[in-house]
Specification:
Length: 407
């Protein structure tokens, strides 16, 4: 989605400007061309040289050239406005937001915004009281009324030491918001109740060891984040992973397959759509040793662990489902389609997402996936390698259609 796209990154004078340097890297890694535009005051926080080095382009700071430099064309802001496929201002201060609302053009960035033809996203970031101030809230509401996408700040500890909303979201969340805008994604899952599972499960052997797998949680977290951005009420049941909770997502952490089973079961009745992206361990040790198992105590150099099968979460819910739409994943390395189809029917699913970890860029850990979507009517649609955020949106497009068909 971002490959070859022209992204204008506006940086204004907030402490979170340091995070925008990482944002440039994320865009560049995704194949986009990035033009950074800073307000003069933003240069008090991060030097233009840092952004120029990361974006490999000269940063635009001033409307007018310095007195000792030759005058350049006056229409630069207009040309850049035509060049951009999307512009995102991150961080956006209360001051710049107010100027945009009033239509002011007193620096290069605000002049550019007035001339812009492409979509604009604004990520407000400031201290909690400035953010909660009535004027700021009214201004943000007016941005939305004008069709500008507002990327909501996160709540947490702020630079002042105060706690509350105002933190700039992490760069991947901002990149995903730009992706959605470019893909024309709308709030088509407004208030739909979606339950997503993500990550591995760990089955303890003793106090220090476990049986697990290589799932990072990225696929499931991308689904939860994308569903929340599309307006859904999302609960994410996460195995042991180190990923931050996506904005506006309720998260329940679990460790073992049995804990995941119990958590999914508790949430299932109030759910409209279940998406099981978790890599649930099929086996768990039949007993957990109270103390660390010592190698000296293992006879003959061979250690055998007796295992029992874990509950098959999807299968047990397939038997109990009433109105729910159920989507599973299939992780297959051979005879992929046949195995995935067996799971689709055996677990009474509406859709299964097949991926093969042997395919480059697919499966565990990577930021991309390569999947085939298999529907209950037998249709199979191959989706070439894409960012997991984009795969998530493709799956959610199917969810929208399935929800439409079920009313
Ligand atoms: O987390 P990442 O690093 O981003 O990697 C993503 C992923 C590879 C983990 C993901 O894309 C994926 O394929 N998830 C499903 C992995 C898996 O367990 O596949 P399976 O074919 O073994 O299981 C089929 C389905 O049954 C899955 O939806 C699974 O969640 C579910 N299941 C499996 C076992 C079990 N005991 N209960 C279940 O409900």
């Amino acid at each position: 989605m971002l490959e070859g796209k022209h992204i204008i990154l506006g940086v204004t004078a907030g402490i979170a400007a340091y995070k925008s340097t990482l944002l440039v890297r994320e865009f560049v890694r995704a194949g986009a061309h990035v033009q950074v535009v800073m307000t003069p005051a933003a240069a008090q926080f991060v030097t233009p040289l840092t952004f120029a080095t990361l974006s490999r382009r000269e940063v635009i700071l001033d409307m007018f050239p310095p007195p000792d430099q030759p005058a350049t064309q006056w229409t630069k802001h207009i040309e850049l406005a035509l060049w951009g496929d999307a512009m995102v201002i991150a961080p956006a201060t209360a001051n710049t937001i107010a100027k945009i609302v009033c239509g002011m053009a007193d620096n290069f960035l605000t002049s550019l915004v007035l001339a812009l033809r492409c979509p604009l996203l604004v990520a407000p970031s400031m201290d909690v009281d400035m953010y909660r101030n009535d004027v700021t809230q009214q201004n943000i509401a007016r941005l939305r009324e004008r069709g500008i996408t507002v990327i909501e700040p996160e709540a947490g500890e702020l630079a002042s030491g105060l706690v509350g909303p105002g933190r700039l979201p992490e760069p991947p969340a901002i990149v995903d918001a730009v992706r959605d805008v470019l893909a024309g994604v709308r709030s088509d899952l407004q208030d739909r109740r979606i339950l997503v599972t993500a990550g591995p499960t760990h089955e303890p052997i003793d106090p220090v060891r476990f049986i697990g797998n290589r799932s990072s949680g990225k696929m499931g977290f991308a689904l939860a984040a994308a569903a929340a951005r599309r307006g859904a009420t999302v609960t994410l049941i996460a195995g042991p992973v180190v990923l931050p909770t996506p904005p506006r997502v309720r998260r329940i952490d679990v460790v073992t397959a049995r804990e995941m089973h119990d958590a999914v079961l508790r949430e299932f009745d109030g759910t409209e759509v279940l998406i099981m992206a978790a890599a649930v361990a099929d086996f768990a040790p039949s007993s957990v040793a109270a103390e660390k198992i010592k190698r000296e105590k293992v006879a003959g150099g061979i250690w055998t662990i007796d295992c029992v099968t874990n509950p098959d979460i999807l299968r047990s819910l397939g038997e109990r489902k009433t109105h729910q739409i159920m989507i599973g994943f299939a992780l297959e390395t051979s005879d992929e389609l046949a195995h995935a189809r067996q799971k689709l029917t055996g677990k009474r699913l509406d859709l299964i997402v097949m991926n093969n970890p042997k395919v480059p860029g697919a499966g565990f850990g990577s930021d991309t996936n390569v999947v085939t979507l298999l529907s209950a009517d037998g249709a199979a649609v191959e989706i070439p390698r894409k960012a997991k955020a984009d795969v998530a949106n493709d799956i959610l497009d199917r969810v929208v259609r399935l929800l439409g068909a079920s009313v």
